[in-house]
Design a protein that fits this description.
The protein is mainly alpha-helical. It has one domain (22-96). Helices cover 60% and strands 4% of the residues. The protein has 4 helices and 2 strands; from the N terminus they run H-E-E-H-H-H. A hairpin with a 2-residue loop joins strand 1 (27-28) and strand 2 (31-32). Helix 3 runs antiparallel to helix 4 (81-96). The longest helix has 16 residues, at 81-96. It holds the Pfam family DHC. It comes from Flavobacterium croceum DSM 17960. GO terms for molecular function: electron transfer activity; heme binding.
């Protein structure tokens, strides 16, 4: 009985949660992006990637083409794993719009 009351309480509590989140924090294709991470990814592309070549638009390549490109170029740009994933998140988010 206690379990049922607890579960019902949790469902009611969850239904009262605010649904007023920013678009950048909404899940897209099952992934949750933060606005801060997306901004960092965009900044890395515009600053670090553009040091050696033009800054490509995320829409210049298909989603499946970007991952090997980022893996290869991250080594040359000395990006951390976190920075690499921020760039990939930014690209994925942009392509899903």
């Amino acid at each position: 009985m206690k379990k049922i009351v607890f579960l019902v309480s949790m469902v009611l509590l969850a239904s009262c949660a605010s649904k007023n989140k920013q678009i950048a924090d909404q899940p897209i294709r099952g992934v949750k992006y933060s606005g801060e991470a997306l901004a960092s990814g965009k900044q890395i592309m515009e600053n670090d990637c553009a040091k050696c070549h033009k800054a490509y638009s995320p829409k210049d390549f298909k989603q499946e083409e970007w991952k090997p490109i980022i893996n290869r170029m991250a080594k040359k740009a000395n990006l951390t794993d976190e920075q690499k994933y921020q760039v990939l998140d930014y690209i994925t988010y942009t392509l899903s719009e």
